[in-house]
Amino acid sequence: MSESPLSAVDGAGAYAVNAPAPKRVICLCAAWCVVCGQYQPQFMAFASQHPDVEFRWVDVEDEEAAMGDYDIETFPSLLIAEGEEVRFLGPVLPNVSMINTLLNRLMQEGAKSPDSQAGALLHRLIHT
Predict the structure, then answer these.
(1) Which end of the chain is more exposed for a tag (fewer CB within 10 A), N or C?
(2) Roughly what angle, to the nearest 10 degrees, separates helices 34-48 and 96-109?
(3) What is the pTM of this model?
């Protein structure tokens, strides 16, 4: 039987040596936002076509503890990360092709979000 590489974080919070850091796309929205309501089915359909990426839909009002003091001003907003490194955090047009473009570009370029609170937000979102 062949073993698959570990993709989870071990007990010490480190990734297994042979496992790639997981790619994450987290959409930050609100239930009251009409645009988010129209975007969610497209986002979920896109997510189902990319099993190698972890997608998550977050209603910022339902996830107040994880959001902490971070305030989203424009919906929808995306947080794109590789492992614990935030590559992008900001508002986007509600167009799933934008996700694909951002994913490809940001991962290739090794971009890093300039938002000083982005890393703490990601940590709270994935650990709460």
Answers:
(1) N
(2) 60
(3) 0.82
